[in-house]
Amino acid sequence: MIPPTHPRYQSLLIRERLVNCVNRGITSYHGLIAHGRGEAFDYLLGEVSHPFALEAEKAAVCLLILADHPIISVNGNCAALVSEDIAKLSNLLDIPLEVNLFHRTDARVEKIENHLKNSGAGRIYARGDAILEDLDHDRRVVDSRGIYRADVVFVPLEDGDRCEVLKIHGKKVITVDLNPLSRTARAADITIVDNIVRAIPNMIKMVNELKTADKSELDGVLARYDNRRVLSYALETINENLNRISRELLE
Amino acid sequence: MIPPTHPRYQSLLIRERLVNCVNRGITSYHGLIAHGRGEAFDYLLGEVSHPFALEAEKAAVCLLILADHPIISVNGNCAALVSEDIAKLSNLLDIPLEVNLFHRTDARVEKIENHLKNSGAGRIYARGDAILEDLDHDRRVVDSRGIYRADVVFVPLEDGDRCEVLKIHGKKVITVDLNPLSRTARAADITIVDNIVRAIPNMIKMVNELKTADKSELDGVLARYDNRRVLSYALETINENLNRISRELLE
Question: What is the model's pTM?
Answer without folding.
Answer: 0.91
